[in-house]
Structure formats: C-alpha cells, structure tokens
Write a structure and sequence with these properties.
mainly alpha
Amino acid sequence: MSNSGEWSAPDRFSDNEVELVDEIVLSEDILDEDGSVIGELDDRQLASALREELDGVERALERLDAGSYGLCDSCGNPIDDAVLAEMPQARACSAHLV
C-alpha cells in the first residue's frame, strides 16, 4: 500500500482523531503483543481497522458530551484512569471487560 497520497481530515475531526488516523494509515504492520511484526495489513483490513478505531473515538466523544465518559456502560462505575490512558475509547470497567 502506498502512502504517497495526501489526505485531508474532515472539519469535524478533532486533533486527536486526525492523529489517530495518521497513526493507523502510516502503520501497515500488525504487531504481536511483544512488538514483533506478524504480518501486513491489506487495504480492506486497514480500512476496517481505521473505521473501528474512528467509531470508538466518535462514541467516546458522544459520551464526553453526554457527561458519561469514563463510566462503565454496564454498571456505571468509573473506568480506571490507567485503562482510559491506554484505550481512551474504553466502555467497560475491569469487572465487565469481555
């Protein structure tokens, strides 16, 4: 896949969303938990991963606007700050992770 084309983020994207898109688009490798490369994404996989990440960010922004960001969807308890720092779009506390 070539990253030679420039893309322009829609106006509705926040700076964080633009950074997320850049990070996903520029990374074509799938990394194992230890950081080793286990394969390359094809265009469909990359598009799917990008859409999934953006959907999560958009849901997190909606929860932020509604005042429910950082609360578990299942029980309403706060999600640990460490979890949110690692995955800002988290929707479940440690008791309700699937």
